[in-house]
Design a protein that fits this description.
This protein is mostly beta strands.
Length: about 525
């Protein structure tokens, strides 16, 4: 038989075997959305009954218990309650799925044996098992005008209690070892060409701790500063040493990454992008990273936390899809699986009008468990849920199972400028005050984050945006560029907070005109103009 014929047969055989291998990741006729529904139906609430806003949980399992950390507030949905944000550790029995106890980890002004925290939000807690008897928890304390500080506090598994003291985590950079504060993280990146300005908040331990070659790795993130790095946690469980930064292209808005290693040892990170779809970057040594770019296997991602894990020899890539269920933000989350990190297949698709965001997955004694943030308020962050994902690598039978039949949403409340009327689709803020010129007029209720409308019928539009002042989300310049002129009336308190005192603008609009604004603009019609 000719050699070239043999080689061709081998090539065909290799291709065929590769196809079979890829296909074998999923059972025939596997329905990832049904798989997601099955999981969601057995999740239980972890957040305490009084909690109104909860987000960004992490956990470890030890024996018959899960130890879950989250940041909460008792004021309102979401995680923007400032100093009202506090961190807790909840203990869940893995057999009964009952919360046995919730321990306060840290809150604003809390007095410990060695230090008293400032009146500032306690935010983004993380947890790792330090030794046989100790869990180490981390959290960030963020004063408004000072450097944020990452602290740690140890939990004794034998007594099921926290120690009385807290201590500062350390950050090791090329310049030395410092308290873990945003300025040192920024300086290390700036020395390598990072151009964004320094911020005094937002340095968080992100992703989940992962072990390779006997070392514990973690992603670090500064969310407002749009800065990312791979770090290794030293054996003291106190010092985070930066290995390499990945911030390119700086033209994007990259933050909140998840990192893993591919079969050939290459590092790969999936990175949230507030300017569009997720970006991916790779590194052979963890120090020097490629310029991040989108990948075709994540075609329509949303700006939200991703996950990138490996269980039972299979990679699990989790990402938020830019699709809405009943107009809920962050309501679709996909989990794709792969053997090589290159070819992916959909194992789970979580679809919920209660949102499904910021999940975390961990294996314990052959079972995969998860935490996830969900909401009853259009995608804000209300509560943490916990439960079983799967027995590692298994596929639960789908025969006879049915999709969740979500009830139709209630009709939207009429949107008129009256006191007490809900302002946005994705926040629970209501109108406190308004200029007399727009009282009782209809307004366009949409996301607080952005606005995109097309004029159907000409007339006059009014616009409200925060008056320019520090930290206010004023869009005065954008409104003026769009042809709006300021109306000389006193500013009013649209909803609580000094930064939410607003000014009034006006414009005559034509049919077919399109208007797009970022946070925060509220459009009001004269009763004649119409928009969609």
């Amino acid at each position: 038989m000719p050699l070239r014929f043999i080689l061709r047969l081998l090539a065909i055989s290799t291709l065929f075997c590769g196809q079979i291998a890829a296909q074998s990741l999923l059972p025939t006729n596997w329905d990832p959305a049904l798989a997601g529904d099955i999981v969601m139906q057995r999740l239980v609430r972890v957040s305490a009954p009084q909690v109104k806003g909860a987000h960004d949980a992490e956990f470890v399992c030890v024996g018959e218990r899960a130890y879950i950390v989250e940041h909460d507030n008792d004021v309102s949905p979401g995680h923007g309650a400032g100093a009202a944000m506090y961190c807790v550790l909840s203990v869940v029995n893995l057999k009964t799925l009952q919360v046995e106890k919730t321990h306060l980890l840290a809150k604003a002004g809390q007095a410990f044996a060695n230090v008293t925290l400032p009146q500032a939000q306690a935010f983004v807690p993380r947890i790792i098992r330090k030794d046989e008897h100790t869990l180490r928890t981390y959290f960030c304390s963020q004063p408004a005008k000072e450097q944020a500080v990452t602290w740690y506090r140890d939990f004794d598994l034998r007594t099921q209690t926290f120690e009385d003291s807290i201590h500062k985590a350390k950050l090791k950079t090329a310049a030395g070892t410092f308290d873990m504060e945003p300025r040192h993280f920024h300086a290390d990146a700036a020395a390598l060409g990072f151009k964004r300005p320094a911020v005094n908040q937002g340095l968080y331990i992100f992703d989940s701790f992962k072990e390779f070659d006997g070392k514990r790795y973690i992603a670090l993130n500064n969310f407002p500063g749009k800065q990312n790095a791979l770090a290794v946690l030293h054996d003291d469980f106190t010092t985070f040493e930066i290995i390499g930064h990945y911030n390119e292209p700086q033209s994007q808005q990259l933050s909140e990454s998840a990192v893993n290693r591919l079969p050939d040892g290459t590092w790969m990170a999936i990175v949230r992008n507030d300017a569009g779809n997720y970006h991916f970057t790779t590194s052979h040594d963890g120090k020097t990273w490629t310029t991040a770019e989108p990948k075709p296997f994540v075609p329509n991602g949303l700006n939200s936390k991703p996950t990138f894990d490996k269980f039972g020899g299979i990679y699990y890539l989790g990402w938020q899809e830019n699709t809405k269920i009943q107009n809920c933000n962050r309501s679709v989350f996909n989990v794709d699986i792969s053997r090589d990190g290159k070819t992916w297949q959909r194992k789970y698709r979580f679809e919920s009008p209660h949102s499904f965001q910021y999940p975390t997955f961990h294996e314990h004694e052959g079972t995969l468990w998860l935490t996830v943030t969900q909401s009853d308020h259009g995608g804000t962050t209300d509560r943490i849920m916990f439960g079983k994902l799967e027995s590692v690598g298994q596929f639960e039978p789908q025969t006879g199972q049915k999709r969740i039949a979500w009830p139709a949403p209630p009709p939207p409340e009429p949107a008129f400028m009256k006191r007490g009327v809900k302002l946005f689709t994705d926040r629970d803020y209501v109108i406190d005050e308004m200029p007399d010129a727009v009282k009782d007029l209809p307004f366009h209720r949409t996301s607080i984050e952005k606005l995109d409308v097309t004029i159907n019928k000409p007339g006059t539009l009014f616009a409200l945006t925060p008056t320019i002042r520090p930290k206010a989300a004023s869009q005065e310049e954008a409104l003026q560029k769009a042809g709006f002129t300021k109306v000389e009336v006193p500013e009013t308190q649209l909803f609580p907070g000094e930064i939410n005192r607003v000014s009034l603008y006006r414009k005559a609009v034509k049919a077919g005109e399109r208007l797009q604004f970022k946070k925060l603009v509220l459009l009001i019609t004269d009763g004649v103009a119409e928009m969609r």
